[in-house]
Design goal:
6 strands; elongated; 32% helix; six-stranded mixed β-sheet; 212 residues
Length: 212
Amino acid sequence: MKVSLYNQKGEVVGDVELNSKIFEVKPKPHLLAEAVRVQLSNARQGTSNTKTRGEVRGGGRKPWKQKGTGRARVGSTRSPIWRHGGITFGPRANQNWHLKMNKKAKTAALFMSLSDKAKENQFIVIDQISLDQPKTKEFVKVLANFKTLGKRQLFVMPKKDDKLSRVHRNLQSVTAALANSLNVVEVLKADTVVILKDSLGVIEKTYLKKKV
């Protein structure tokens, strides 16, 4: 598959051949859904926590004597059936949300998401971006040269670049990622993947080590 190669002014300066093993993979919805579920589940911190009756402060004294009052027997005001009492079967901070997924399946899902972006013309390859000053407004001018970006963009860099890493921080619509650490959720959430040309080689080197 060939796609146009742009410069930072939005002008077509040539074309680039995309690796068919990465950008022409037939999608399997169930595999993509599983990859998304695994990633989102593993991102959960599991910090939600409620107190049991033994952890709620107070309730040490028996409210009334066991017999003779005509009321139901109660041992503590922190019983789960009492107001301000403990919580029964509430979330606990020790819950483990971690899920496992085969590495080959995870890589295949990533290829499917990239293939979908390339097929739907939501994939823009730029030869390079050179900014006079590492300022957000300069980067915004570069993005403004491309009219069909959509609301959310994934900007893929071949390696860590301090200047390019700083210029997008104030832009809520832009998510930056390194080519060797892409994930399915970020690719699918983006309306357009904006990728530097050198990143294509990094993706091949990183994810095509073994046949998927």
